Amino acid sequence: MDRPSGVVEPAHRPEPEGRPAVRGGGGVHPADRAGVRPAPAAPGPGCHRNRAHRPVVFPDVTDVVVVTRFEAGSLHAHGFPSGRTAVFPVGSGVEPVDHAVAGDFSRAVYATDGELVCVDPAGVVLWRLDFGPVVRRAYLATVDGAFSADGGSVWLYRPEAMAGRGDGVDAWVVLDAATGRERARAELGTEGHGGRHFAHPDGVHVLLDVGEGQDGVQIYRGRLDGDALDLSAYPWGDRVLVGLSPDGGRFMTVDHSQTDVAFHTWPAGEVVARFEVDAFGRDPDEGCVEWAGGFLDPDTAVVALFGETEDDDEWFGHHLVDVPTGRVLGTLDTPSRDAADIRPLGDGSWLTFDADGRPHRHRVT
């Protein structure tokens, strides 16, 4: 395949479907940086909202993917496929652990160890949610928030067990994006260090991947049903969710021990294709499957491999597979810095990121 060309665009660090993957482990549940401003008014316990402000609204465009990064007191966002960018000024002096921007760029949320804050494009705080004090060391437990596909809800994973907070039970919470009001909640049977959200293209379902360190990974499927969160758990405890196909018909997982990659039907989770390291012409004793990659288009996926030869030479590569037929198609020529440095966008293009977290978009020419 010909080497693609890229354009530099501000965004998040390289990561599978929105979060960075770190070679060798733990890379599915990262922390980013953001800031905070004060907000008035309090409509309910723990949630504080600015009622008077009328938020700025961008043109009627909703991006499927929005990648973000925090720099110098501002949250930088870039949307795809539109290519538009925005900077949300949110202040400095605080160490947030996660952030996200709605697909219509109407608002952003960022989390610190103690609260979730929602701001508009001008940086005005719309509401904030207090988490309560962290009893254990904060780095052991990282919250994760994401907007629903329509931007109307914020889905929030709260690792209460590891944080020693509240009743000590991990929770998955759905908030009204406009007010911060809790719409639904479900208790999880996990003791997670962090989580990652994936909004399904159907606009209804959201998937949550909860990392429990050496104890493995749990994957949940949820949807709002009135005032309740309809929750289903997949029966595996050893697979990391990497991505969803753009048509929503399949999803991709990597074994927690990084020995294989599998593709599943939606929503049942039945395996339709599986590839181990040797399927790509590599020695399984010298290589692993990275927790990265994803769908280049509805049928074609990118699988990332890395390893070390017996001479201690490190290597990595990206391979294309045809999911319906289970065939390996060849390698993807991409200027990635490492195996984790790739994010397919589902429209035939993909992102790589420079050392400062700024992306380059590529397409096969």
Automatic annotation (TrEMBL):
Looking up SUPFAM superfamilies in the UniProt record yields: Quinoprotein alcohol dehydrogenase-like
Protein name listed in UniProt: Uncharacterized protein
Please list where the region (Disordered) is annotated: 1-52
InterPro entries in the cross-refs: Quinoprotein_ADH-like_sf (IPR011047)
Q: Say which domain of life the source belongs to.
A: Bacteria
**Bias type Basic and acidic residues, positions:** 10-20
